What we know:
Elements: E1 2-7, E2 11-13, E3 18-27, E4 41-47, H1 55-70, E5 76-82, E6 86-94, H2 98-106, H3 116-134, E7 139-145, H4 156-168, E8 171-178, H5 184-194, E9 195-201, H6 204-219, E10 221-232, E11 236-241, E12 247-251, E13 254-263, E14 267-276, E15 283-296, E16 301-314, H7 326-349, H8 353-373, H9 376-395, H10 401-417
Parallel strand pairs: 2-16, 4-5, 4-7, 7-8, 8-9
Antiparallel strand pairs: 1-3, 3-14, 5-6, 10-13, 10-15, 11-14, 12-13, 15-16
Helix pairs in contact: 1-2, 1-6, 4-5, 7-8, 7-10, 8-9
Amino acid sequence: MKFSAALDVNVVAHEAADEVTVLLELEAPASAVDTARAPSALQIVLDRSGSMHGAPLEGAKQALVALVQRLEPTDVFGLVVFDSQADVIVPAAPLADKQAVIAQINEVGPRGSTDLSSGYLRGLREIRRATGAAGIRGGTMLVISDGHVNAGIEDPEQMAEIVATAAAAQMVTSTLGYGRGYDETMLTAMTRAGNGNHVFADDPDAAAAAIAGEVDGLLSKVAQAVSVTVQFEPQVQSLQLYNDLPAHQIGDGQVMVELGDFFAQEQRKLLLRLGVDGLPALGLAQIAQITLQYVEMPDLVEQTVTLPISVNVVPGDELGDRMPDPTVQSERLFQEAQAMKLKASRAYESGDRRAGDAYLAETVAGLADADAIAPAGVSSAILAEMADVKRMRAESDRRDASYMSKRTRASYQAQNRKRGQQR
Length: 423
């Protein structure tokens, strides 16, 4: 795993308050071509409430059939469906008989209301049982839903706590919001807590592509349980994480950020801001130590990489005009623009189209500021994001607020939580 750190400034004033922004970049290795892939575990939790009737459910079933055909007989697969209750359609187990599993998928029909929690908890029990029996470490839960929860646990924070507990046992949770009626607040809360992906699919074709993309990642997974721990010196007074990821204080002066699993050659960027005050000695001073930990697949070997974060402390009158590193500074502006996009999503979700449009305009302006200082190698990605946000703004003139809320929320998830992700 490649792991590097860059600072916006590496010179700070002696015994004075200052801020240092740190850009962490990670890149997973390629899959070993001469090594057999370790068995994977995938548990589908599928909404089959009445609103899924017709093309949505049929499209999801076709995508799941294609998914099963891509898996190996040694991979664990399970399917739980939910409406007002949860039913196990395919007990989680290695895929010894794919045709039988496909036949069971094809028999699923719509009915009832939407009790997502019962489906999730039943699916979680299934995958835990099957992975334990098969000796597989960890797994992936993929929740597919098209509606607002109207039974069972309806509080996103309570549901996120359940998902976070599963994530601690290396069960990643990804979500697919289908159509324009699902609860993006609930699904994105689950995704954040579960270290997974969230995708918005407006039609069966988009849902099939999203499911296929999730399987691509699952089948090329090269690292599990990836985390970054920041251990900072007493002079660090504050720590801000720009990426919307699960973070926990694990000791005095230590914060752990959970990144979930990485697939082959996946790239991620994390942005931190450290507030420092009162560095007592002139010269080079370490202000933090950042430790990357992960489980390397397929041999399940635990790896640790450590990077020191140091600055040069000088008298205040020698600080001069510091020029922030353009790569780090452009990433900070990029992430501040993403915060505007999240505000746009929440405004659309509340039905305030005017505010949503205004926040998207601010997003474009922030991206333009980021591009103005970005090096050539960074600028292309910022310009692509700017073009996508402009398309969103144009779509707002002909799309309803529900669509815009989901479109902008899924984009935020990709560009903030999984920043730099490539598949």
